[in-house]
Amino acid sequence: QVQLVESGGGLVQSGGSLRLSCAASGFTFSNWAMGWYRHTPGKERELVAYITSAGGSTKYADSVKGRFTISRDNAKNMMYLQMDSLKPEDTAMYYCMRRSGNGVFGSWGQGTQVTVSP
User: How far apart are alpha carbons 118 and 102 in whole angstroms?
Assistant: First the structure.
């Protein structure tokens, strides 16, 4: 059974930091590119960052470039998103997903809520 479980969200003041974690199970994690996505009600889901299967390449949305860092540990089947210099506009539910081409593969999990106060 494939599972992606996000954690690490919370309430933080503007300028603060959070580290999100994604625990993967039920598939060969090291074979898949992975991405972090976020969703705010009334807006489309947005790709925040993605990382290739071996972790050798990453890409970020312009809105988070220079502030967020995506990483993974294939030995532990874990992916992370270090978020620094957080802004109120980063407030969203954050999800991790497998990447397939330019899209996603699989079902969305429960996500982890990030709320940044002004």
Answer: 33
pLDDT in tens, the chain (118 residues): 999 999 999 999 999 999 999 999 999 999 999 999 999 999 999 999 999 999 999 999 999 999 999 999 999 999 999 999 999 999 999 999 999 988 888 888 899 999 999 9
- What the block records as the tokens of 18 is 């959070």
Question: Which strand ranges, in their side-by-side order, compose the sheet holding 18-25?
Answer: 3-7, 18-25, 78-83, 68-73
CA 22 to CA 81: how far, in whole Å? Answer: 9
